[in-house]
Amino acid sequence: MPQVLPLAVLPLAVLLSAVLAGASQEPEQSCREKHLQSPAPSPGHRWSCRAEAPLKMTAHRLLGSLPLDEVKDSSVRTVNRCIFSQSQPTPLQGALQLAALSKDVLEKVLDLDDSVMQHEDLPQFLSGGKLFPGSFPLAHRYGGHQFGYWAGQLGDGRAHLLGEFINRKGERWELQLKGSGKTPYSRSGDGRAVLRSSVREFLCSEAMHFLNVPTSRALSLVVSEEPVWRDQFYNGGVRKERGAVVLRLAPSWFRIGSLEILTKAGEPDVLRTLLNFVIEQHFTAINPNDPNKYVAFFTAVVNETAHMIAKWMSVGFAHGVCNTDNFSLLSITIDYGPFGFMEAYNPNFVPNSSDDEGRYSIGAQANVGLFNLQRLLEALLPVLSLNQRSQAEHILRGYPQIYHSRFHELFRAKLGLIGDEDDDAYLIAFLLKLMEDTGADFTMTFRHLSEVTLLRLQNDSITQEMWALWDLSSHEFFSDWAKLYVQRLRSQHGDSDENRQYRMRAVNPRYVLRNWMAESAIRKAEVNDFSEVELLQQTLTEPFVKQKRAESAGYSSRPPAWASQLRVSCSS
Ligand code: AMP
Ligand code: MG
Hints:
By secondary structure, the protein is of the alpha+beta class. Helix content is about 35%, strand content about 15%. The longest helix has 22 residues, at about 295-315. The model is unreliable at about 1-35 and about 35-50 (pLDDT under 50). Adenosine monophosphate (AMP) binds next to loops.
């Protein structure tokens, strides 16, 4: 292999795949209770149920299998010996507007069609003002490690699980409202979510689905005139915003924190009940009678968490708040808050402006995954024998390897490489180093590589139109890298340049939800113009396909100058 760039100068380039040590460090706590500040009180509520609702649900399986809070009091309190508390949504005040709806979820998940839009009460159903028949609203009790520290009881403080919907394919989906009012887990919060964070969650969870990243889904976004007070940047600037509700869906909303709280509270029987339920319902490859089933479950979560984080990295996604209460047991991306898609390549990219320590920087996510899995293992200790514990510890030691190989596989595909050659890791790390040095845009560098011809690469004739690749090509070692890359591609017998581009375009998106795009849509949505939310939603359902309207909107262009000033905090 021609050593054009010594490996010693690739330190941070390997960032994305390396540094899996020191995950158990516990840095300073930050961004903890800040987002719970709610200077204004929320109103009382009424709710009702009508038979002609567009959707029928059930809560039998959840209620029949998992213990319910015996205390019926809806006040904020410490809850014991249960998985759920009964809690009614608080309808949003004032006129409601259905700001966005996912046609894909409507049709492919909920077996409905556009005619449902005629239903006059639809915004009420989608925001908790009316309940679908069969629903039984619940708030889930969970805890979590936040920014490295055990935070005690957290729970659904502003979300209501409505129940399950079983579609014609036999899939079970749990429907949940977010922003639907207080529950026993609201602590000092108001139970609400504001328009800006709801637009972001709605758009991003759907966008991630179409990027083929495991994620929760979102059906709808309902906005209201209800005033919600937030200090967006925690600098004393409390401002009136608008309340909104997202109806989101997942096969299950259980988190690592769902198990942690039961172990911390000394409730091993409840822990066993929840684990058996989760395994039977969601890990069907595991035999429920297998005496080693908890180790098998842990093995599956370790694998899938590594897979999910590698997928995040492959699209440049930083979650922003990787606390154990935001890590799903099904290893799907949940709880979208101050997330961000990395633009100029930077392993230290931190999307959340409240994350002062950079604990959840993009390059730290693999380590954080390990930290969270260590917390999961601790939560499982009451149900593991000594021997099973050491088996689980052994599995966890394999996590870096699982992550590395998944990461490597995804990045090989991003470069259109067929097979696995010894020098591929070098080729990938070399490219990332060039991107880091030049600050080339992550998404568009890979996309331009999917669109450029080999001939152009070989002749070093990149045009300015391919702006990210143009930036990259300013690096003194670019032509060395390009030479290696072209050589590697030419060695793929039977592969054509067209085929290579086709494969690469199918895994390298042209559009991701950049902050400036979300921000621009939010500014319009604040004044009831939802056209840009709609345009983004449309665009992001086909992120791998070049689209006219998206191009005119500049979604694949160099980000505008004002984008660099944007900050996203965990205020939501
Ligand atoms: P998050 O940062 O959104 O994942 O939330 C962390 C915890 O704080 C969860 O228990 C949430 O339910 C709770 N929480 C966040 N915002 C609010 C709010 N406005 N009202 C009540 N609980 C909240
Ligand atoms: Mg959360």
